[in-house]
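Per reviewer request, we include the raw input and output of the structure prediction for the construct analysed in the revised manuscript.
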Amino acid sequence: MQTYPAERITTGYSWTECPRWHDGSFYFSDMYNRRVMRVAEDGTAEVFLDLSGREGLDGQDVVLIGTGFLPDGRLLVNSMHERVVLVYDGAEVGLYADLRQVATGPINDMVVDAHGRAYVTQLGFELFQGESPKESYIIVVEPDGSSRDLIEAGAVMGANGIALSADGATLVTAEAFANRITAFDLSPDRVVTGRRVFAEVTELPDGMCLDAEGAAWVAQPTGAGAIRILDGGDVVAKVTVPAEEAGNSVACVLGGPDRRSLYLCCGFEVFDAGKSRCEGQGSIWRAAVPVTAGEARP
């Protein structure tokens, strides 16, 4: 198995999540600081979107997590506990999709396809209130903002990271509370069929991405990095971080000019938002890997 050590490129955040590479820049959610950050190649970071002044719907806390970019360049971002998808055009923020009638728990990650269709994952239960895991559906948000449960794909156990293959024909998600990666076939008209197990894993799978060869990079919170796993379950490579400096490894994406750099989000405290904000130990790490993401999403 090949091993690639990562270097820390920026730190000082709350809980870092949902890394993205878009239009030559790297983005991630500074979750409990209610921000989406943009980072240059040299590690210089700037605030791309700041929602620290937003009042949450129904009195819910505003926690920014999954992001994606529409074909016209607008940013979508999930507000976890509000259970809504927000849209940002670079100047104004608006409500894109209200998922309160379909989501059975906090919403999580997302991936946006080339047509502007967003696939949104959800925990399916109130993890932060101590509830036990239960199955729920992936949620589809159409380009017009309408949403529905992806019932034809079947229920999943805590869908977390989610990705699309380079040819757009395969949708893959990490079932965090089942320790498996699950794949679905997508027809050209975006009908979802062919559910199957992509891989079983020994540790909880969190955020993930795919590369151009169809292999998955999967972050494992207790695994001090991310593994590259082939369809079928063979683990062939790992990006490593020092656990004492990085904490938990929670999400990853392939980026850089040739999309051969694996960016990894790491942090120390997810269940105490105040402590996470105060201590500012969230960080981003990066390692060069041999296989590009190509046209895979996110």
